[in-house]
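Supplementary Note 2. Why include the ligand at all?

Several targets in our set were suspected to adopt different conformations when bound, so apo predictions alone were not considered sufficient. For every target with a known small-molecule partner we therefore ran a joint prediction. The input for S-adenosyl-L-homocysteine is given below.
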Amino acid sequence: MHHIDWLSARQRMVERQIAARGVRDPRVLEAMMTVERHRFVPEDVVEFAYSDQPLPIGHGQTISQPYIVALMTELLNPQPGDTVLEIGTGSGYQAAVLAGLVSQVYTIEIVEPLAEESHTRLLDLGFDNVTVRCGDGYAGWPEHAPFRRIIVTAAPPSVPKPLLEQLTVGGRLVVPVGDAFQELQVIVREESGYRVQRSIAVRFVPMVGEAQRH
Ligand code: SAH
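The joint prediction is reproduced in token form.
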């Protein structure tokens, strides 16, 4: 139906958009090379699956630009035994990228049809270590906490406290913080507090729900 060489398109994406911009972690590059991004975008935009941009996935939401997914994954520095929490499942693409790098991914999506679609998609594609739940990610997922890694892919005005609390000591949280303009932050939990590292300016959809009341 589509006469597109997906593998070559993916290779070009990794070389020109991701490695060329400085993402170096070989495990991240490998994951971006492995996960079939074209399975995560709607049919009407599938020809742009490997282009250098976010794409609409319905319900006013987007799948992030490939470079941003790769950068956030590298900043998260996921390790093989880790349990990861993601807030903002969207298409399920970021969760799928993480699934190959860690032992378990828990992901929360507030828009019910998106949660259902990505749950079905991830099952169909054989990602059996990703659990999708519909709900407000502000509260994290206490039943599975603490997490060694937490990644937030919608922007809260300030970092949700429950997410900080559900991080292990030594754990890392990657989150775009701010309103219209956001800064990507890496927050590392230490024995006696949190250390914040600032990364690049980014633009994400707002984290809705409880986050907007703090
Ligand atoms: N990681 C996604 C892209 C996320 S777009 C991917 O790989 O495709 C941001 C998503 O966060 C949207 O689907 C939006 O509905 C969701 N979202 C916004 N606020 C949320 C909240 N409070 N809890 C959980 N999900 C939320």
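Residues 52-213 form a domain with the Rossmann fold fold (CATH 3.40.50.150). The beta strands are 55-58, 61-63, 83-87, 104-109, 130-134, 147-152, 167-178, 182-190, 193-202. Comparable summaries for the other entries are listed in the accompanying table.
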